[in-house]
Amino acid sequence: MRKKLRRKFIVLATFSVFVILLTVIGLSNIIINLDTDKEMDTIASLIIKNEGRMPLNNSLNENKEELTVEIRYGIRYFSAYTDLNGNVKTINNEHVATVNNTEISNFAQRLVRYGVEKGKIKIDENRYYYRIKKMNNEYLIVFVDGTSRYAFAKGVGVYTTIVALASVFFFSLVIIFLSSIVIKPFEENVENQRQFITNAGHELKTPLAVISANAEVLEMTQGKNEWTGSILNQVKRLSGLVNDLIMMSKISEGKNIEMARFDYSKEAGIVCESFKSIAVNEKKKYNYEIEDGLELNGNQKMLSELINIFLDNAFKYCDPDGSVELMLKSRTRHKGIRLTVSNTYKEGEKVDYTKFFQRFYRQDESHNSKKAGYGIGLSMAETIVKGHKGRICVGYKNGMITFEVLLNK
């Protein structure tokens, strides 16, 4: 239990930090790239306003503080004029050395043909931001070299990612070191609850036994009547509840569970046979299919009780003149056993199946249901399955509620 809690806490805490850092890094990189695009667009617009050349004064610069004279001298760019069909008329490549006139002509023609006003292109290993403007019967296309700026943005993304991963790693080490301290109060609380249930259960057994004995003495001396009968029924009911709670507590603790290999098919057949009379009395269809020779390692009594719980629940909540089905088969792709129990239930669509395995949960919220039981059966079934490292689930389809259990052999 302790290891499981620590593992969950470490995984959830580390995952939460990872998601937060990933979100921060992602947003930071998006902002940097958008800022780079904005800067490139400002430069390209400035060159277009100056008819294809970078102005060396501030007459056309609306953002004087962003583009100083020194910065403008360091900007690498080229431009071209084309006719409306994309044929290049003039080229200005004085401020770039890596692109020749043929390449400029090809890119200019392609961009005019695409008709996209602005964007980014890659020439060899260099990245350029371009902008197109229609002027009378011709196009002016400006290319601004943003290689260094985009490389800087990429580098920031790489380094921040490395820092984030390293941070997650060191955070995990800290969490692993502190996890036992963090979960200790919760672990103690759970342990106290279990101990309370066990102790209270044992303490209740004595007064229940005394009440039962007194009621039986009254019946012997004064004869049976409805009052003594009611007392004995309630004592029996409370005794069953106490025993189930103690069993659930022991299973959760992982103690006193005797495991042995046995024929589960045989045990399932015995339990299923015992429900035939109930099906006949309640006039319900009852079918079960059990594969022969299914053996597993587990607690025979608990796993037999598991089938008893599901069938008892199925008959209680089955529609009048409905049907109950049970199947016990081996899993084809895994070395395990699949148990399914289904019953017809027309009102099943309105049921909250997420609460089915809660202790004392009843669909009848008033808890005045005429159906026998005390709402702990399915919770006990879940505890038994988890105690055997299996999986349990419930669902509703085609008018039937189906419980499915997967157990390892």
Hey, roughly how much beta strand do the residues contain?
A: 15-25%
Radius of gyration: 38 Å
State the helical fraction: 40-55%
Shape: elongated
Low-confidence stretches: 365-374
Mean pLDDT score, rounded? 80
Structural class: alpha+beta
Oligomeric nature of the chains? single chain
Structure, described:
The structure is a single chain. This protein is of the alpha+beta class. Helices cover 53% and strands 21% of the residues. It contains nine helices and twelve strands. It has a five-stranded antiparallel β-sheet with strand order 2-1-5-4-3. Strands 7-9-10-12-11 form a five-stranded mixed β-sheet. A two-stranded antiparallel sheet has the order 6-8. A hairpin with a 5-residue loop joins strand 9 and strand 10. Helix 6 runs parallel beside helix 8. About 2% of the residues have low confidence.
Summary keywords:
five-stranded mixed beta sheet, 9 helices, five-stranded antiparallel beta sheet, alpha+beta, 21% strand, 53% helix, 409 residues
